[in-house]
């Protein structure tokens, strides 16, 4: 991973790096690897993640088809 430092602005480059690491899931993976995870906990976490992904995909499909309005932030 590479981040360019423009005009000696290291603070902005650090912010960009943190955002990229967050998007890649590095922080989440570091947290999970910090301690041992029982196989049953791993299965439950992976199943919850799959459910979350499926709901997100269904929500995006409904928005594309115009069934649900877009979420405003």
Structure description:
- The protein has 3 helices and no strands.
- With 73 residues, the chain is mainly α.
- It has 2 domains: 1-35, no CATH class; 38-73.
- It is flat and about 45 Å long.
- The model has no long low-confidence stretch (mean pLDDT 91).
Strand content: under 5%
Helix content: 55-70%
Q: Could you give a short account of the major beta sheet?
A: none
Distance from first to last alpha carbon: 29 Å
Q: Count of DSSP helices?
A: 3
Outline the low-pLDDT stretches: none
Helix and strand content put the structural class at mainly alpha
Please give the number of β-strands. 0
Rg (CA only):
18 Å
| General shape | flat
Element order: H for helix, E for strand: HHH
Question: How many domain modules?
Answer: 2
Mean pLDDT: 91
Topology:
Blueprint: H1 10-24, H2 26-33, H3 39-65
Keywords: Ribonucleoprotein, Ribosomal protein
Organism: Roseibium hamelinense
GO molecular function, one term: structural constituent of ribosome
Short précis:
The chain is mainly alpha-helical.
List the defining traits of the structure above:
73 residues; mainly alpha; 3 helices; 0% strand; Ribosomal_bS21; ribonucleoprotein; structural constituent of ribosome; Small ribosomal subunit protein bS21
